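INTERNAL AUDIT FORM
Audit reference: QA-55
Scope: verify that the stored structure record matches its stored sequence.
Auditor: D.O.
Record contents follow.
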Amino acid sequence: MIFFAAASANQNDLVEREVREAGASDIHTSSGGVEFSADLETAYRFCMWTRCATRLLVLVHRYDKLESTDDLFEYSMKLPWENWLDPEKTFAITETVTDCRWIRNSHFASLRLKDAIVERIRNNFNGQRPDVDRDDPDIVFHLHVNRNLVSWYVDFGGRDLSHRGYRKAQTQAVLGEFMAATLLYRSDWYRSLRDFLESSDSDSERPQAPTLLDPFCGSGTICIEAALMATNTAPGLLKTESFAFLRLPIHNDDIWQKIVDEAAAKRVENSCKIVGWDIDKYAIEISKKNAKAAGVQDLVSFEIRDFTKTEEADVPSEKGFIVTDPPYGVRLDSGSAAIRRLYTSIGSIIYNVFCGWSVCILCGNSELLGFIDMKPNRTNALMNGGIECQAAHYYVFSKEEREQMIERAKARRAERLATPLSSGAQMAANRIKKNMASIGKEMEKQGVTCYRLYDADMPEYSAAIDIYEGKWISLQEYAAPASINPDDAARRLEELILATERTTGIDLDNIFVKKREIQKGASQYNRKSKSSNFFVVNENGHKFLVNFSDYLDTGLFLDHRPVRKLIETMSKDKRFLNLFCYTASATVHAAAGGALSTVSVDASSNYLDWAEKNMQINGFNTMNHFFYRDDCLSFLRENHDLFDLIFCDPPTFSNSKGRDTFDVQRDHGYLIRSCMRHLAGNGTLIFSTNFTRFKMFGELYEDFEIEDITESTIGDDFARNSKIHRCYLIRHKKEKARVIEVPRKPARRIVRKSLES
């Protein structure tokens, strides 16, 4: 017989292993599961032991020449359904249809199959027919269509194959048994358990029984599944009377009893320590009931405990493993800020309290893993109830290991610093040292902690070096001309990096190197990686999140520091609009300056998330601050509000998908006029651009009062590159100034609400 074991996404390897262990042959893995050949005994054994498969089907027939649902009906009439079904039994049909041109409605296809089965049985039983029972049928047939290949199956294991039967109650957010088992299989805990079970009792080197903790246990599923694994309890032993094959004509009770006895004999005693915590008393009560129903109540202990308040005294003395599925705000109605705080706390507790432990965290929102503030050793992609999840695996170094790593890093650094610099590196070091004595001292005098230290001051070493808080450096190499030998360019970059470390005293690990090239379209805003490592820096008394690795830019344009300070001084009691807001650093300054309200617009959801975080860490959480995800030109066309102060800093060029191409030199006239239609009569537009060859259209001077303030907005750290940006104040001419105020109302294209809401 041919069987098909259905599996959730990215679990085929685990199901295939279970199929092989059951003794199957002719095994083939496909996108939705594993097909194999087996006799009844092997199929029974698979149903008894599988922890990850969601369904087991036995093939009735397969054909690939059908071209319509009428063909489906006619061909299905030829199949011997009477071998499976008689008028005394009830049945149901499930279906999956993919990429089939002649099936428009998959449910209609299953109806045609139902009609064919009924007609076939009626013809073979003197007009008697079976009834359809969708809730509790005796037999379930499954129709699978992939393009023109049609497969007819009988459900062998039952639609609840992945359900063990021990969950007598459950919490709001539920982790399926098969998903919990998959998570455990992927974890380091299972590897340790396998080593423990495979070691001999007489072996003096036998490893210690692994300790498992689930600090967000919910209904206790992870802990219970771990206990079943630890005791080598076959999941099928918990529900020996509920499999679908017990009602099939091909069932052999003697063979099934043999499999049951075989599984019962393989159960073992185990000294593993398995602990579940949860802050919810009701969840703990449910977990205890479920553990009792699974027969593992003596192996698992559950406690009411708030993980965020865990101290070292609460942790088992032996090092162990955390495998958990904390809330991630998809199924549970939790505020994003609260979820972020939870994950920040999780990371802090794990790092400081669970030293030497291995950790596996399942999360349906990969952004939240960034708040763990630890780099996972590896990740697995999983699907949990239709939610794409990541299982992130961490090892938390012990205090001793951390000390050893620090000492090794110190030794490497000392060796590196003791090595004489090459002549080129020494030349670069001398220039950086000179800049530190001039620019660095001036920035320190002004209270500036994030500034440009070096900007291609030497043609041979073409890069920008930005220093942040005296702790981190963003070194952006400018792309070398094609005439430069790539090996020479690589050597010079290495020399510049070594010179930077030597002169600034900032460790090599905190020097982030990126290559800056001419960016096309939205590529300048594209994410380069997903480390999600953010650091807090200061500017003008405010805090900002920066990221040195994930994007080309860090999240804070340092050349606009004076412009942002100007915005702060001009914002008192003003309605402020920030177009192309990026991470909303200008909005933070406006809010700090006493703006009556702020509106920040950007087409990127990533940057709007970042912008909200910047506002939140500065304490601006009220209803007066709005964030709109929109194309700025569309926003200006469709919004009718007036603003007293507008900041517009567009990209030089953009051809983002779904939007018209934008060129700041070609299109700035239209953009500025659109802004001015939203500017109150006595308001000010601050227009800025980093296009070095920018020239303001002459006709704009005829219609508006325009003041070039570029020189006053270039900080001392950018004085040697005065073309870094152009900046203008633009106002209505007094004789044309509008005095009619448009009533304040929400924009029609709101995608984001205020921070408070």
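Auditor finding: record pair retrieved intact. The chain has 20 helices and 30 strands.
Action required: none
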